[in-house]
Every structure is written in C-alpha cells, then in structure tokens.
Design brief:
This protein is mainly α and 152 residues long. The chain contains seven helices and four strands; from the N terminus they run βαββααααααβ. The mean pLDDT is 91.
Length: 152
C-alpha cells in the first residue's frame, strides 16, 4: 500500500533577507506585482501577487541556491567595477579558465547571492530582475506512511 506524504515549505533566513535588502538598498515592505511574460505559461504570476519584497525573498525564491552561469551573466550588466565585471564575465563564459573559476569560486566555496553581493560591492542588480532570475523555493516532501507490519 502506498502511504501519504506531507509537503514542508521552507523559509529563507530572515537575517540573510535583511542583508540582501541592505546591500540592494530596498524597502522590504514595498508591495509589488510580478507578471509572467511567458505567454505559454498557465500562471499569470510566478508566485502569489501582490506581495512584498520581504515575503518574496522569505518564501518564494531560493536565495541560497548556488547561481548558475546564466544568472552570473545577468549580474555582469549591473556591475560597475571593471575587475569585478571581468570576473563575472569570465565565469559566465565557456572557456576552461572561466569554468575552473566558476567551480572554485561558486561551487567549491558555496557562494550564493548574498556572498556575491558582499564580495563584489559594485554588483547591484535591481531586485525585480533578481526575483525573475532566482529559482523558486521548492517544497520538501516526506513520507508519512505507517508500516502495515507494525500497525495492522
């Protein structure tokens, strides 16, 4: 017999959310709506809207996911310092040197968005674009089945 399962929806760390808000100079209580631009999508909004930046960062996007190279590439647009910009460009490219740097700086060092914003102070993307780019927080599913041998 198949058992039931329960979905647990995670929440991001509030201190980390506050740190990102401070670095990006955003008011977490600002209410906004985000519309899905994908016309083939069945959802009008990528997450429940209207909402606040606080709620979106706490409950809807994964701020501790290691950013994929397409996100790194987007961050280049919002980085003013040439040295910092070059580092991001290299990691988002296809050269072996860039792949090695991405592996070491992002993957091996487990560097998420807040770390990147801290380490690259001229990188200041708009929060609306980040909310589009970051992966959605996913529920964690757990089995709550009982054994028929223990509980007949």
């Amino acid at each position: 017999d198949a058992g039931d399962h329960v979905a647990v929806y995670p929440t991001n760390n509030e201190e980390l959310v506050n740190k990102i808000a401070t670095m990006l100079n955003i008011n977490l209580d600002t209410v906004f709506t985000m519309n899905n631009t994908d016309e083939d999508s069945s959802k009008k909004h990528p997450f429940p809207c209207p909402t606040t930046y606080r709620t979106a960062l706490l409950h809807y996007v994964d701020i501790v996911a290691l950013p994929r190279t397409h996100i790194i590439k987007e961050l280049v647009k919002y980085t003013e310092n040439n040295e910092e910009k070059s580092k991001l460009e290299l990691m988002s490219g296809t050269s072996q040197e860039g792949k090695d740097l991405y592996q070491k700086w992002i993957i091996d060092d487990v560097r998420h968005l807040a770390h990147i914003l801290e380490d690259l102070p001229s990188c200041r993307p708009p929060i609306d674009h980040l909310l589009e780019l970051l992966p959605r927080l996913q529920p964690r599913f757990y089995s709550i089945a009982s054994s028929a041998k223990v509980h007949p």
